[in-house]
Amino acid sequence: MKNTLAAKPDSAEDSHPLVHQVSNESRASIAESLSEFFDAQEVLLSASSSENEVSDDDSNISDISDNISMDNFSNETEIERPNSGSVEEGAVLCSRRSCLPTPSPTNNTISLWNILRNNIGKDLSKVTMPVHLNEPLNALQRLCEELEYSELLDRAAVTQDPFERMIYIATFVVSGYASSFYRTGGKPFNPVLGETYECDRPDKGFRFVAEQVSHHPPISACHAESKNFVFWQDVRCKNKFWGKSMEIVPVGTTHVTLPRFGDHYEWNKVTSCIHNILSGQRWIEHYGEISIKNSHSDVCQCKITFIK
């Protein structure tokens, strides 16, 4: 599809057509720019009748630039296509990375006093923090990490004893805090409103999707499905800065259903506190009580207490 619209020779009284204007500078670099970006082309409109007239030279240049852009697009597509994954017998094979491409920067020497001294006792979700404190992932991806031990839910889905099922559910709840000892140095990025994240784990048998549904206050919602369970939650956190420590109070409920037994488990999350925010070695502790209830049955309940 060409960008130049030719006017009919017999319609002299008709309005002038819209023409893609190409400057001399842009003509020289159009092939280079289009080889890097494959987005919609910019169309510059002009109301001047003299500028809307299309000469033979301009139309030829437009045709050449269109052909160059299409050739570059096809060549780049052919080059990049083998890198997307090898195909064997109609199946696309992909490998997951086991480590980050670069080591995380050291942020123990960052002084936050100039930023946080005027925000003691306030909600830190509205305070701009240095990017060095962020992990290379956002909060939506962090929610998916809670399903890293989803095999515990698979075990619960095939266990007949309701008490033993509750034990597996409680173990799964605690497993969400397994990585907190190694993650005290950074925080995930705050997603923008409407941002989504999807994760398909055929090795674990579940599909996950999350969305940022509110900006202020930040609220994230996620949903995961498997043949053995359904998992969903909404996460709202209240952050408080107390001088040398930061307290994170989650607000919301996490749900898991086991369709085979009709069980519907729901629980809350405990408070997390990060110490030595301004200086020294940061460490995190969790305290509070998690109450796991099965709304389908009153046979058993579970309470897990995290001690300071």
Automatic annotation (TrEMBL):
Presence of keyword Transport: yes
Signal peptide: none
Entry-linked SUPFAM superfamilies: Oxysterol-binding protein-like
InterPro entries per record: OSBP_sf, Oxysterol-bd, Oxysterol-bd_CS
UniProt cross-references to Pfam families, sorted A to Z: Oxysterol_BP
Keyword terms, alphabetized: Lipid transport, Lipid-binding, Transport
Disordered: annotated segments: 1-24, 48-69
UniProt family annotation: Belongs to the OSBP family.
Protein name, UniProt field: Oxysterol-binding protein
Taxonomic lineage from the root: Eukaryota, Metazoa, Chordata, Craniata, Vertebrata
